[in-house]
Amino acid sequence: MDRDIREEIYETALAWVREAGVNIRNKINDPLVVDTKSNPNDLVTTMDKETESFFVSRIKEKYPTHSIVGEEGYGDKLTSMKGTVWIIDPIDGTMNFVHQKRNFAISIGIYHDGIGEIGIIYDVMADNMYHAKYKNGAYKNDVRLLALTKKSNIEEAIIGMNHFWLCENRLVDERIMQKFVKRIRGTRTYGSAALEFAFLAEGIIDGYLSMSLSPWDVAAGIVIVGEVGGGTTDINGLQLNMLEKNSILTCNMNIQDDILDYLKKAKK
Ligand code: IPD
Ligand code: CA
Ligand code: CA
Ligand code: CA
């Protein structure tokens, strides 16, 4: 993507994310209409829909040739990543939004011909903007994030992951994952995939492991983590398909092989 065009899109996207964030904060105590989607714990609110439709109408007006993929379905149905594609999660961590009124994020990844050019993750209530441009470094607000420091072993690593890895499941042998959890220093579960990527980029966790994430959960995070030298793959160590769901590992490259080894042993 041309540098000047990217710069213009980046500034515009950041301004829209800030505007959407202000709107959410202003309405945070308003009564919520909460619906469920695939199961009783899969929540969606009027604010998820309002926020996504805000982005979609702005993008369609200013950039009519760009494509949009959004969780709540206001975007397009894509079969390829050709051209410029905005991948939007209007509220990542809806359960936190509903129950905690914090710990959720707006996440936008902008890809061009399949390359992640821009990543923006906004922790709305903490007012922290994580943002990156391909090959231009990653930032938390105005501060450039440092490259991930070397960790010699996974014994010192804190990994973001949830309890599903340790319960009986269809993907992996939970007993091997229990061994993994015993070996690392600790786990964290933040309830927003986007924030887990942002926290990895910030260096406050060392990796994040998640089953079955959608492109909008990871699109921005991949760009931001990539800019601090971290890597994101599926749990077999292969490149993600951005048009499908993936179970993912994103981490400091120093511990990638060790974690992939556990996943290989655990795979059903
Ligand atoms: C969810 C969050 C959560 C992850 C789920 C996602 P949503 O996104 O990122 O942390 O475990 O798999 O679906 O639905 O709140 O946007
Ligand atoms: Ca959702
Ligand atoms: Ca999400
Ligand atoms: Ca969402």
From TrEMBL:
CDD domains hit by this protein: IMPase_like
InterPro entries attached to this UniProt entry: Inositol_monoP_metal-BS, Inositol_monophosphatase-like, Inositol_monophosphatase_CS
GO molecular function, one term: metal ion binding
Key words of the record: Hydrolase, Magnesium, Metal-binding
Catalyses which reaction(s): a myo-inositol phosphate + H2O = myo-inositol + phosphate
BP GO annotations: inositol metabolic process; phosphatidylinositol phosphate biosynthetic process; signal transduction
EC number(s) recorded for this UniProt protein: 3.1.3.25
SUPFAM superfamilies documented for this protein: Carbohydrate phosphatase
Residues reported in the UniProt entry to bind Mg(2+): E71, D89, I91, D92, D217
UniProt cofactor(s): Mg(2+)
Record Pfam families: Inositol_P (PF00459)
Protein name (Swiss-Prot/TrEMBL): inositol-phosphate phosphatase
